[in-house]
């Protein structure tokens, strides 16, 4: 298990040395290291398949993810090598699958030993990822309520400002397209475009400021606070269950 972890970290560290790289190493060298890592992963997976019942092995999603990641990595390496021979520039798209090995290989280390450490371990990363996955279904309803509120406010904005021929400072039409309104109000939740997004309406009538004040209060303060509280409480609950009551603050 510890050896597999070292090869996982080595596989991730190749990002620094592969083109485009911070410290570029020869392609042949990084390719050999990459193949070595994949062989170790495949050997670990094969060993696990031999000591596990076939039905149990194939029903485990983690094993399927690892096999797919190995195949994608080999395919990308072969394609990149062939294109390199013909001097055709390409992108190593398999880089996005490398973290799959880190979060799917099962760790057998003592959880109490890791729970006492300040630095994160591979076991903690895996369990934290699974806690996030378990939390996502439980925050879906809050997210849907937030989206419903955003859709309703966008529709109200379209009815309020869409027929008044308002323009932005750049001379563009203001709040005339429903999808653009949704995007602008979504950005307003982060206050990144405040107060620019409300200036044309405010210049037309100062009373329209009440619309944006209500939107910010409902979505930025109430819904975002509620969303963060639900995420935190559910994640903390799953993390406690995963670590048996011992988890790092």
From TrEMBL:
Gene3D superfamilies in the cross-refs: 1.10.287.70
Membrane disposition: Multi-pass membrane protein
Transmembrane feature ranges: 20-43, 64-83, 139-161, 173-189, 209-232
UniProt subcellular location: Membrane
Keyword vocabulary terms for this entry: Membrane, Transmembrane, Transmembrane helix
InterPro entries: Ion_trans_dom
A GO CC term assigned to this protein in UniProt: membrane
GO molecular function, one term: monoatomic ion channel activity
Domain Ion transport positions: 25-237
Protein name, entry field: TPC2 protein
Biological source species: Corythaixoides concolor
Gene coding for it: Tpcn2_1
